[in-house]
Amino acid sequence: MSGAVIRPLPTIAGTRIAGTGHYRPERVVTNDDLANTLDTNDEWIRSRVGIVERHFANDTETVVWMGAQAGAHAIADAGLTPADIDTVIVATCTMPSQIPHASTQVAAELGIEAPGSFDVNGACAGFCYGMALASHAIKAGTSRNVLVVGSERMTDWVNPADRGNAIIFGDGAGAAVIVGSAVDEIGPVAWGSSEKLTSTIHVKDRESFVYQEGQSVFRWATTAIAPVAIRAAELAGVALADIDVLITHQANLRIIESIAKKIKAAGARDDLVVATDIQTTGNTSSASIPISLDRMRAAGTVKSGDLILSVGYGAGLTYAALVYRCP
């Protein structure tokens, strides 16, 4: 038996977000537009989920293409070029087929040569899973600069005649570039799943649309998710009072408000900024957190150096939360 010792790679002390980007399809669909084909109205939708409008992709705005647009913006924002990216992670649950996976195709669109690439299907928690995996890969020494993308075409998987789901979901992509740092600016991830609730959100087979037990998911999200976010702050060693911004998965405005209320009751400041991009983007699954982050940066709602707490949750049922500093 050989006595050779496997040599570990040099490790990196910390990681940070270097840049962000997003893409929302050109077509805007208002509540009144939906009322033309569904038994619904603007007031009913706003009161139920808080959405005013959402974006629907056209035939050319694919999961891969939208992901590449968001990724290009994030790479440029980080002051890097595609040649600097050595790993691509795409969080998605709406690819039209599973092979080939989205990440290699996104890399090809961007001109990134020979990257490590893989997809993550954590549904609406996918982007937080992707961020954590990127951070782990860099700290382990296997990656230097990682592009993490959340991209979804939810409208491909939603029955347009299903009033409960058709009013909620939209399409889009968001991205972030994760790089090494002397000081850690991305905290440990708090992740897990509620394996006994897998049937509450599912797609039965290739010929089916997404099914969701709305009330069950609502009860779960409004009771189980705030503690996950609080746990992420604890793992990062920061007090809730230190958190400047809360960016949750944009599932439903009532859920967002419930989570924020519980986090404030646990010690967060009254002036905690809470993302509500759901109102004009809709529920874009794994894309919702990075879209919110990039749009809030552009609007000045979140500033460089702000401490952000993000929590994603959705089908699986899976969840993941982490604390990070705004680039």
Automatic annotation (TrEMBL):
Family membership noted in the UniProt record: Belongs to the thiolase-like superfamily. FabH family.
InterPro entries: ACP_syn_III_C, ACP_syn_III_N, FabH, Thiolase-like
MF GO annotations: 3-oxoacyl-[acyl-carrier-protein] synthase activity
Pfam family, one: ACP_syn_III_C
Biochemical pathway: Lipid metabolism
Highest taxon, organism lineage: Bacteria
Keywords annotated in UniProt: Acyltransferase, Cytoplasm, Fatty acid biosynthesis, Fatty acid metabolism, Lipid biosynthesis, Lipid metabolism, Transferase
Domain Beta-ketoacyl-[acyl-carrier-protein] synthase III N-terminal: 118-192
Classification of source organism: Bacteria, Bacillati, Actinomycetota, Actinomycetes, Nakamurellales
Species for this entry: Nakamurella antarctica
Domain Beta-ketoacyl-[acyl-carrier-protein] synthase III C-terminal: 236-325
The protein's name: Ketoacyl-ACP synthase III
GO BP annotations, alphabetical order: fatty acid biosynthetic process; secondary metabolite biosynthetic process
